[in-house]
């Protein structure tokens, strides 16, 4: 994958398949520590300790449609190439958290990509699942939460194209505001 946002999409789709009702995506840039941390946490079915040990093996997958699962192994490789790491915490019946830490300014770090479009697409394709997206840069942060959007929209589906466009714009604008605030 050429962009980290595509890895986020892949991991979040794993959460959808795991029956999650809430998927939390966090992008945390800490320039002072030179780290970019991406976490995808869900309340899905979770994994056994054996599954957690094997999930970074490209020839292990729980899918029946194909025999390989490359999303997590590629994410791990990408993180480690920058001096970072990948960790997975999971418990059957309680969910899973995948955390990848990258060297923020490392030459081998893939670009984040269009995370706003990724989150908006996830919401559009899975309108019955709640998503939170948190962006942190230094001490600044914001969160987009579909539960709050649902309250405001009063019955308008999250999959409505104008709503999806709004969510993407909301994420882009608030990301820029956090970056601008931290720069001054």
From TrEMBL:
UniProt xrefs under SUPFAM superfamilies: ATPase domain of HSP90 chaperone/DNA topoisomerase II/histidine kinase (SSF55874)
Keyword Ribosomal protein applies: no
Coiled-coil spans in chain: none
GO MF annotations in UniProt: ATP binding; protein histidine kinase activity
A Pfam family the protein falls into: HATPase_c
BP GO terms, sorted: phosphorelay signal transduction system
Keywords on record: ATP-binding, Kinase, Nucleotide-binding, Phosphoprotein, Transferase, Two-component regulatory system
Catalyzed reaction equations: ATP + protein L-histidine = ADP + protein N-phospho-L-histidine
EC number: 2.7.13.3
InterPro entries: HATPase_C_sf (IPR036890), HATPase_dom (IPR003594), His_kinase_dom (IPR005467), Sig_transdc_His_kin-like_C (IPR004358)
Residues making up the signal peptide according to the UniProt record: none
Domain Histidine kinase, residue spans: 1-106
Annotated transmembrane regions: none
KW Nucleotide-binding (keyword) present: yes
EC class: transferase
Protein name in UniProt: histidine kinase
Species this chain originates from: Anaerotruncus massiliensis
């Amino acid at each position: 994958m050429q962009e980290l946002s595509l890895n986020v999409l892949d991991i979040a789709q794993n959460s959808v398949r795991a029956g999650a009702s809430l998927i939390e995506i966090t992008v945390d840039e800490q320039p002072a520590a030179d780290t970019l941390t991406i976490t995808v946490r869900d309340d899905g079915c979770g994994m056994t300790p054996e599954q957690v040990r094997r999930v970074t093996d490209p020839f292990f997958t729980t899918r029946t449609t194909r025999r390989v699962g490359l999303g997590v192994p590629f994410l791990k490789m990408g993180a480690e190439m920058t001096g970072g790491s990948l960790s997975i915490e999971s418990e059957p019946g309680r969910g899973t958290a995948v955390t990848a830490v990258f060297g923020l300014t490392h030459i081998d770090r893939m670009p984040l990509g269009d995370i706003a479009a990724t989150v908006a697409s996830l919401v559009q394709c899975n309108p019955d699942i709640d998503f939170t997206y948190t962006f942190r840069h230094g001490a600044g942060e914001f969160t987009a939460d579909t539960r709050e959007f649902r309250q405001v929209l009063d019955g308008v589906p999250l999959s409505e194209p104008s709503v999806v466009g709004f969510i993407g714009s909301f994420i882009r604008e608030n990301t820029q505001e956090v970056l601008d605030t931290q720069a001054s």
